Amino acid sequence: MTHVQxxxxxxxxxxxxxxxxxxxxxxxxxxxxxxxxxxxQALFDARGLSVSDSEYEQRYMGRRPADVxxxxxxxxxxxxxxxxxxEMTEFILSQAHTVPVVPGAADLIRxxxxxxxxxxxxxxxxxxxxxxxxxxALNVRHLIDIVVTSEQVRHGxxxxxxxxxxxxxxxxxxxxxxxxxxxxxxxxxxxxxxxxDIVGVTTTTTATDLVRAGAxxxxxxxxxxxxxxxSPASQKSPVPPGxxxxxxxx
Length: 250
Prior knowledge:
This protein is α/β, with parallel strands linked by helices.
């Protein structure tokens, strides 16, 4: 672990002074990316599409299926999109019991709750999956003030809509919040929302790509010591707040 240089603000200090904490779920709190990747692959196979891991990370990971399915090659309609989303949801729900928890995730939420810090989970997943994970795998739903799911927003990440809705519900100012995200699209959503203290969790994406998207620090887990000593972003080049080019990393 690379320690923060003298004079640089640490994630521990940012967390201590945060008005509220915003949390992504898949990839940040639970290691569910493999399940989501397999559900996408089943869809790609059914449509005869070849999608590389790199393209998947850039175009699909961390985003709502409803936002990107209409852009896939081949015939598209609202009915077909709804059917595909339903099939993908059914698949991942059947695999919920196999999803591991990110080390330290539940303890982080319990510690923040004990300290009286308001919390929101903002996820690209649907409400059923979110409840299954937060109530089942993590057993922390009762500790979280607000959960924003895909059904509650018109535009998913990298749109800031979900995070802005969470801040409003918590009566929190975005630039006084701290956030945890594992995908570039999620970090871009935070940047556009005005959140600046962002920890990139390197469960699905490299630290380099998370820093390029705008993360201030990176960590490989949510264990207390790892979060407190998160590696600083020495040279970050975030996507400009007005940019919507989520499909191409900077």
